[in-house]
Amino acid sequence: MSHDQGHGGGRILPHVALSQHAHDRQGVRRADDAWLEERWADPSTRVLVISGTRLRHANGRIAWVAPQEAPEGLRVLLGERDGVHHFAVVVDPSRVPGDREEWVVLREIVQTLADQDIVDAPLVLHAVGLAEWLWSTKHCPRCGGRLEARQAGHVLRCTSCGKDQFPRSDPAVIMVVTDGEPGSADERALLGRSPSWPQGRYSTLAGFVEPGETMEDAVRREVQEETGVVVGEVAYFGSQPWPLPASLMVGFTARATQTEIDVDGSEIEEAQWFTREEMRAEAESGRLVLPGGVSISRSLIESWYGGPLPGHW
């Protein structure tokens, strides 16, 4: 069965929302200054202005502007989609144009993106991911020298030792763990809750991949460390960029071979097995609060469940 199709309803579900609508990043053009200037001069080009790591959110939408409306700053080529070229301009926060209250971090709005913003999401995540990297990478890690942006914001070169620095993404696994006969009424999914969350809020388990570790082994290790549950089979589901500040969330489905729960009490305060009927009833009543609509966690849960569930963050 496809991971896009739930066991319960047989209907094809939307996959990971923030990973749809990919753009052509046009990496071969990043060092072509003449071409970049031509694209910048095109009035149809769209520009996302980023103040440090914040973006402008006006009238409930992410604000794109024409090149002539953008302030001076570091121009970052994002790429092309549907015949339109897109850039980001990263400016120092002290030079923020407009009302400062309109500038928000991506985390504040990512779960409530409007339909058009979902279409633009890969462009926005590309821009914010680079802005986060540029903000945190101020000196050469080899010699401490000054860094200079190259290749339309995608490379930082040390002016002292010449070493190039590239953007990084930290891989993290996120997984829905199941038990029981697939598709049966008795099949269960494992959800957990962080100690910092309000009562009733649950989600899939997640954790970072350690050096020298495969993603599949990271799934098994994280599940066992956090809940005591032992996992055997692990299968790829999909991935989602998450530049908060620099993660790539890689989703998996996993089958439990030992189901007794013994939470670590640190990262996970409580974990619980849910059948589909239990999940529906608890979510419908409001006792179970599930992840937001654009998160890969929601995609994992609803793909297993077989359709949309009530409730949201």
Structure description:
Strand 11 and strand 12 form a beta hairpin. The protein is globular, with a radius of gyration of 22 Å. With 313 residues, it is of the alpha+beta class. The N terminus is likely disordered. The strands form three sheets. Strands 1, 2, 3, 4, 5, 6 and 7 form a seven-stranded mixed β-sheet that branches.
Quick take:
The chain has about 325 residues and is of the alpha+beta class. About 20% of the residues lie in helices and about 30% in strands.
Write the topology of this structure.
Blueprint: H1 33-41, E1 46-51, E2 54-58, E3 61-62, E4 64-65, E5 74-81, E6 84-91, E7 103-104, H2 106-109, H3 115-136, E8 147-150, E9 155-158, E10 164-165, E11 170-179, E12 188-193, E13 205-208, H4 215-227, E14 230-242, E15 247-258, E16 270-275, H5 276-285, H6 296-305
Parallel strand pairs: 1-6, 11-15
Antiparallel strand pairs: 1-2, 1-4, 2-3, 2-7, 5-6, 8-9, 9-10, 11-12, 11-13, 12-16, 14-15
The level of helicity is: 10-25%
Query: What radius of gyration results from the CA coordinates?
Result: 22 Å
Q: Tell me the structural class.
A: alpha+beta
Largest beta-sheet details: 7 strands, mixed
What global shape is seen?
globular
Give unreliable regions as ranges: 1-14
Tell me how many strands there are: 16
- What is the rounded distance between the termini? 29 Å
Number of separate helices = 6
**In percent, how much strand structure appears in the residues?**
25-35%
Task: List the helices and strands in order.
Answer: HEEEEEEEHHEEEEEEHEEEHH
Q: What is the residue-averaged pLDDT?
A: 90
